[in-house]
Amino acid sequence: GLPQPQWQRLRLQFAKEYVNAPFFQTTFLICDLTRPPLNDKNLRRALAMSIDKGRLANIILNGSEYPANGGMVPPGIGHHIPDIGLPFDPEHARYLVETSGYQIGELSSEIIAYAPDRAHQVCDFLAAQWADHLKLNISWKFVDWKQHIEESIGGKFNLLLTGWVADYPDADNFLRTGREISGGGCWKNKDFDALLEKARASSENDERRACFAQAEKIMLEEATIIPLLYGRLHMLVKPRLTRFPTSPLQLWYGKEVRIGT
User: Fold this and answer.
1) pTM of the shown model
2) I need a labelling partner for 218 at 20 to 30 A (CA). Which of 42, 151, 239, 257 fits?
3) How far apart are CA 123 and CA 47, in angstroms?
């Protein structure tokens, strides 16, 4: 994609040609539960509840993505649940830190945070939010994509910024496949796993929906994964194109494009 300033300029310059649509992608944080300090549930929840996702998506990123106020499953997939995520509540976040056994401001040097080298804007915002609300000064380590994958597999992080793009439009692809491949597999919960297995074995949509909803609620309450943003597709489409179909999964369909005379 284009850098934010360039994308914003083109969107305004060619406003009549600009179109946008949802894209099945979720950007999220993964917390490593295997070692201090993020093995503490209250501390993880504090990090999640001190992030203003609306400001991140709509102001910092100029509306280029949607705020992930739901869970890991993005809008457009049938089992997406709006507003299931932990709310933005800095006051309660500070209370959670105080009840975690740590003191406000004492954790900065203990948290190792990794991110892709193109994610400076998002990471700068997160760092500012945690510094303002929790007196927590986190320094991000930016790495290329190869090293980013190695870190997600090797588990050398406390905090990892990553994301998942759907292989197919189903909640299982995010809650199981995407979570595990992206580095979130270190978290184990018998109830969560049982609900995913039950959904996987069921052919009844209502039953699957209920299972996914319960599983996602468990994951979000534990704050093992902190959803931040949902994908948004941006394009400039020339008026002479009389047909230009898109989808949140395949983006566009070259064979279906029609050019008018």
Assistant:
1) 0.90
2) 151
3) 13
Intra-chain end-to-end CA distance of the chain, in Å = 30
The 10s digit of each residue's pLDDT in 46-95 is 999 999 999 999 999 988 899 999 999 999 998 899 999 999 999 999 99
Give tens-digit pLDDT for 124-149: 999 999 999 999 888 899 988 888 77
Cα–Cα distance list, 162 to 79, 113, 147, 252 (Å): 21, 11, 12, 24
Supply the DSSP symbol for 74. P
> Residue 14's CB: how many other CB atoms inside 10 A?
12
Distance CA 203, CA 224 (A): 28
Which tens digits make up the pLDDT trace of 40-56? 999 999 999 999 999 99
**Which of 1, 43, 64, 104 is closest to 226 using CA atoms?**
43
**Number of other CB atoms surrounding residue 137 within 10 Å:** 13
Which residues make Cβ contacts (< 8 Å) with residue 7, sequence separation at least 6? Answer: 1, 62, 64, 234
Amino acid residing at 71: G
In the structure encoding, which two tokens stand for residue 258, read together? 């029609």
Residues 6 or more apart from 235 whose CB is under 8 A from it? Answer: 18, 19, 20, 246, 252
